[in-house]
What does this fold into?
Amino acid sequence: MMLELQKDYLKRIVPELPELLVKRYLLLRKVYYSAPIGRRTLAAYFHSGEKVLRKEVDLLREQGLLRVEKRGISLTQSGIDLVTAITPYLKSLLGLTSLEEKLLEILKVKRVLVVPGNLEDDEVVLLEMGRAAAKILRECLTPEMILAVSGGTSCAAVADMLSEGPAPPGIEVVPARGGLGEVVDYQANIIAARVAKKLRARYRLLHLPDSLGEEALQIVLKNEKIKEILEMINSAKVLLHGIGIADEMARCRNATPEEIKKLVNKGAVGEVFGLFFNAKGEVVGSIPGLGLYLDDLNKHVHHVIVVAGGRRKAEAIVAVAGNRARNQLVLDEGAARRILEIAGESATDEYLER
Amino acid sequence: MMLELQKDYLKRIVPELPELLVKRYLLLRKVYYSAPIGRRTLAAYFHSGEKVLRKEVDLLREQGLLRVEKRGISLTQSGIDLVTAITPYLKSLLGLTSLEEKLLEILKVKRVLVVPGNLEDDEVVLLEMGRAAAKILRECLTPEMILAVSGGTSCAAVADMLSEGPAPPGIEVVPARGGLGEVVDYQANIIAARVAKKLRARYRLLHLPDSLGEEALQIVLKNEKIKEILEMINSAKVLLHGIGIADEMARCRNATPEEIKKLVNKGAVGEVFGLFFNAKGEVVGSIPGLGLYLDDLNKHVHHVIVVAGGRRKAEAIVAVAGNRARNQLVLDEGAARRILEIAGESATDEYLER
DNA sequence: CCATGCGGGACTTTTTTAGACCCATTTTTA
DNA sequence: TAAAAATGGGTCTAAAAAAGTCCCGCATGG
It folds into this structure.
């Protein structure tokens, strides 16, 4: 409270502080993730003039935070320390801390962590979310547990940012789904393997194409190996997953226009593991055959880490991750603020209904 | 510690923060003590251009901290709140908090409070010191006690800044000395009366010219009234006093050149109540007759509040107020930093002696 | 071995800032 | 009560700072 008070006063007597602080924080953060990086590249990234950027760089270099060399700009050790140390203060200044508290109430989950920035405007935000989620993930690990991970860019970012180093013994990493989409880096299988490698843990793969006909699926499911892995997935104690937007994911899974229409009519907005959720968080559709398996998962798991960002995913996040007491959400500022807007709107709606 | 850490990081990522903060703090503080005050007067005060100052004023007005009216500039309620609330943060930023801790060790007193700024450059500092000391003074008051105050500009400032309002019952305010100097506002008598009025307490006056011959003094001392007051002074539980520079005060008390030379030869650097102290804090001279009385005072008193500022008073402060466990010092930044310098020098001297 | 991207420097244009007034009004002073 | 001083606001101009746009020599990586 005392800190909040001072922060407020500080903003009034030095109103240029937030702007300066955020600007430089974003610069340092970008360099952190992209070093070594050139002056012009940075300028283009921030849509600012070269001279303007150079001034900032010079200033931060004079402060000993940046190192400017022939090969490009990178952070000094102090710069690295600062970027991590100042994040909580910045979040408080930007109102993200109070945003987190509000979302905690609205979404009724275990934890909400909001990363500054918007995924849609700034690619670095994804990495930052990945880093935050990776940290949480490590906290959740205990010996002899199964960790299930989903696919997608968000989980890929977590794998990227996960620190290398041994995890508790006996951990196994499994993909929560089969193959999906074309980009190999975002496949659950690949991500599971990469996470396992970082953790120096074992992993299993699920060799199952995702969009399979009903009959074919029934046959494949009789395969012992696949049955075994599916059982492993279902007994996972930690679950890491992203969130899909319903219609996009349906299209991505080669659903027919009728099927998509059907889903939309049922109010599907969010998707995860091939399960489709409506705004109230109810399952209104699923990939045939696997649906039941995966619906069970939520009942036995201990920790669920959800990583998602971008304003356009807000509805899906509420639908998929809301009202689940075991969920820990890692969001970006864009999604977080949008969720608050939606909640405000629906609250207004309720008010109007009376 | 956490706060210190953040402060440090904040200074590195926004190095212009201290400058901005201090500049505006000083502006607000000046307005606080001088409102309503005009733009040009302020500009002249800060030795800055009119336009520069106007920009700052506009900014602070937009922040709702200043009110700009035909009659002049004054603080809004928020502005008043801010000026008082931000002081501890500012002190920490300027390193005054750590300065206070160092002085506490060096001077071995009960408390050291350092006010930002230098008395010699900025007249407002005196008022700020007065306000700080007045606050401490009120904390020290208990029913039925005697409060003794000395003369001088510092104590006058305390009287000025003392809030109006009742004190614990039965308090009596007495001047610690008789008349001294020409300026009526700085007489101990007048200050005692003003303090008493603010506290809604009773007061007594000491009708005794300070520079009296030895024989005349002996006669006057037989006066019952005077004896009574002198006894009251000696049984004071709270003592508020400033600090004089030895040679200046000697001259002020109409000492002959020989007497002054004698004092200087004895190493006198500081003065209070007509007692002269050398650098080690020993009494090396006094106004005839009253010396013993006043030397006793320090032995029975509970709280001693010392107010002094300006670099040139540093030696005197160390001499008079150092090494007294009951003393609470209110200093300005100028004096405080100079004291630290002196301590460093003498420490170096000791080092060289080995 | 060359092409790309790097930091640093220089030059010009644009924008911002700062200084020096004057004005109508209010407040203080004589 | 009248004169004098001080108030905020406005404006014009000079100065300075900022920003945009190049070019250069160099290292690095394909």
Q: What stands out?
A: The CA atoms of residues 82 and 280 of chain A lie 41 Å apart. The first strand of chain A starts at residue 66 and ends at 69. The mean pLDDT of chain A is 89.
